[in-house]
Structure to design on (195 residues):
């Protein structure tokens, strides 16, 4: 979740407090206190069974009222949906599709390195996947307000890369090829890499 969205939600809650309006939980708390007072006066002079039954009835009525409020409130509330949309799709869906496209490109390169894919097929599929990934990245970058988040992610990744360089590179025991830090198989010979 971006910091802009978090800030917006905080401002909405703050605005409700400034206006002095009752929040739903405050209304039900006041109603429960009023009912408790009524139960005390109604059950005066009766046994504890009547007090317990009236208290349970009061609690059940408050829960039913609160459940009804939660069911009806979204239908009549003027608040808009705060889901981040890019075009006609959610940002999370676009990011998931981008990760899938980038992973497919990586697997395609591995298949070519293993000799399972001809050069012509590789060029065709790689071109389509790269164009798709570029389009998704462009769509994601079109949303404004993500510069700070991108800079933080970049800073974090640069720190991770520095740590990776300090750590020993993942080398294949069979062919001594250097592999990516997250690789599970050697990109040269395909042998499983030990942890």
């Amino acid at each position: 979740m971006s910091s802009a969205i978090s800030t917006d939600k905080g401002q909405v809650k703050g605005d409700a407090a400034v206006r002095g309006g009752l929040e739903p939980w405050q209304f039900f708390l006041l109603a429960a206190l009023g009912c408790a007072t009524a139960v005390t006066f109604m059950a005066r002079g009766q046994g504890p069974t009547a007090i317990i039954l009236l208290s349970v009835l009061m609690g059940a009525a408050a829960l039913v009222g609160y459940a009804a409020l939660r069911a009806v409130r979204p239908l009549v509330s003027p608040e808009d949906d705060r889901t981040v949309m890019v075009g006609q799709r959610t940002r999370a869906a676009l990011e998931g599709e981008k990760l899938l496209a980038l992973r497919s490109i990586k697997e395609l390169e591995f298949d070519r390195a293993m000799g399972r894919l001809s050069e012509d097929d590789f060029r065709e599929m790689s071109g389509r996947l790269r164009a798709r990934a570029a389009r998704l990245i462009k769509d994601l970058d079109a949303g404004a307000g993500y510069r700070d988040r991108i800079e933080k992610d970049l800073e974090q990744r640069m720190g991770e890369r520095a740590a990776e360089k300090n750590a020993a590179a993942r080398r294949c025991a069979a062919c001594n090829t250097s592999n990516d830090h997250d690789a599970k198989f050697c990109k040269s010979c395909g042998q499983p890499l030990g942890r």
